[in-house]
Structures are given as structure tokens and as C-alpha cells.
């Protein structure tokens, strides 16, 4: 989430509106105090825009193809030592 002053918002409005369309939320400040939030409108568009924003930021890659039915029917790997659960609990404890 970016913070932007009113003056900077006025000077680069199109850039910030494009960022909002891509799913980013921008906090508008007046003398360093938050006064407004600029963000995407609508839930279905927001999800797609969020993914687009992640792709633009280099945090995700677009899908090349859909997963096959066989993928979903594969057996899951076993975690006999419960390391995944321990890691999840540790992460939630840390906040």
C-alpha cells in the first residue's frame, strides 16, 4: 500500500488511477496524515486486478495452462512428522 500526498496525487493522477485499477490501494495524505483511500471498485474485478498487480510486481507468474483433472486426483504426500502443521502454528504465533 502506497502513501501519496495530495500534491503528488494531483500531479500524477493517471498513474495512481492505473495502480488502483490493477488492485493496489493508495493512501492519500494531507500534511503526513491519511485523509483518503484510492482503490479498486468491485469484488470480481478486484481479485483479477490483485493478481495482475502481483504479476506486475514480480511476485507471481501468469498461468501457462490449466491443471489437468489427473493432477487433482493424485495422492497427497504424507507429512508423518507434521512439519507443515508445526510451521503454520509457528507462523501464526509470530503474527
From TrEMBL:
InterPro entries named among the record's database cross-references: Antitoxin_Phd/YefM, phD-YefM_TA_antitoxins, YefM-like_sf
Gene3D superfamilies with a match to the protein in the record: YefM-like domain
Classify the source by domain of life.
Bacteria
According to its UniProt record, which protein family does this protein belong to?
A: Belongs to the phD/YefM antitoxin family.
| The protein's role, per its UniProt record | Antitoxin component of a type II toxin-antitoxin (TA) system.
Name this protein carries in UniProt: Antitoxin
Amino acid at each position: 500500500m502506497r502513501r501519496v500526498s495530495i500534491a503528488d496525487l494531483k500531479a500524477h493522477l493517471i498513474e495512481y488511477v492505473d495502480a488502483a485499477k490493477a488492485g493496489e490501494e493508495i493512501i492519500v495524505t494531507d500534511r503526513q496524515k491519511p485523509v483518503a483511500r484510492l482503490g479498486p471498485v468491485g469484488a470480481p474485478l478486484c481479485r483479477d486486478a490483485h493478481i495482475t498487480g502481483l504479476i506486475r510486481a514480480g511476485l507471481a507468474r501468469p498461468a501457462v495452462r490449466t491443471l489437468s483433472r489427473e493432477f487433482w486426483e493424485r495422492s497427497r504426500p504424507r507429512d508423518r512428522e507434521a512439519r507443515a502443521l508445526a510451521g503454520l502454528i509457528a507462523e501464526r504465533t509470530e503474527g
